[in-house]
Specification:
mainly alpha, about 0% strand, globular
Length: about 260
């Protein structure tokens, strides 16, 4: 709700950012539109999985705030998580929702294209300069592929770059958790991490699709997708959602064995 208030100009904490931005993006109380969208996308499976009118209204507010954030990564993660939960509950509703989302995406794509033709930059269908920076990070990963450059290496590197025109100036994160794990910990660090995630998903897949199982699966899926273009593992509020989904799957699996 606070994010929607920001969209209409009501702001208490980040007045300089909200009113000076050329394209108004909401920040919530997080202070960053991408992190705010990642948070909303993690909360969305919880709201969607609950019955009752109040939760449906909450889902609508979350979706509106996500659109107002104009964060491509957050919106894609939210859409996948939403469709995943709906697909397991009602495939007809999932198809209807997908059709609506595709229609909105096409409409926004047309708006972005027309805006670019008139010299206006888009703030939706954009990777915000990640690709050229990822190319530089790839060269770094290639040189230390086995063991990586060490935990915290990206932060240390950013502190040595003082040229404001450098692509990696103030880039303390790779904006891709998997890629950053490869750079800092190498294959020997990324390999076990991928195994842990894969093992958790195998357990989740064999669980009975109860509402709580669907909710945890949706949160986990959203968190993994957000990790591709953001750094939720480095933020305690967002990382807590990842821990909830990961640990929750093992708790439910242990409970299943006890009941059997």
């Amino acid at each position: 709700v606070y994010g929607l208030l920001q969209y209409f100009g009501f702001e208490q904490f980040f007045t300089d950012i909200i009113h000076q931005a050329p394209n108004r993006r909401v920040l919530g109380t997080v202070g960053n539109p991408s992190h705010f969208a990642a948070y909303l996308s993690c909360v969305l499976p919880i709201a969607v999985s609950q019955p009752g009118l109040r939760w449906k209204m909450g889902t609508g507010i979350i979706l509106l705030a996500l659109c107002a954030s104009r964060s491509l990564g957050g919106m894609i993660a939210a859409v996948v998580g939403l469709l995943w939960v709906l697909w397991r509950r009602s495939r007809r509703m999932a198809w209807v929702t997908l059709a609506v989302i595709v229609g909105v995406a096409v409409w926004q794509g047309i708006r972005d294209y027309v805006g670019l033709q008139h010299g206006h930059s888009t703030t939706v269908f954009s990777l915000s300069g990640r690709l050229p920076r990822w190319e530089l990070f790839f060269d770094m990963a290639h040189r230390s592929l086995i063991t990586g450059i060490g935990p915290g290496g990206i932060l240390t590197l950013s502190q040595t770059i003082t040229d404001p025109n450098h692509l990696l100036y103030h880039w303390r994160h790779v904006h891709n958790e998997w890629f950053q794990s490869l750079i800092e910990q190498g294959v020997i660090g990324l390999g076990p991490l991928l195994w842990m995630v894969g093992h958790a998903w195998r357990i989740w897949w064999r669980l009975t699709p109860t509402p709580i199982v669907l909710t945890l699966g949706g949160i986990g899926l959203v968190f993994l997708l957000a990790s591709l273009v953001n750094f939720p593992c480095h933020l305690w509020v967002l990382s807590s959602f990842g821990l909830l989904a990961y640990c929750g799957v093992y708790v439910l699996d242990a409970e299943r064995f006890v009941l059997e």
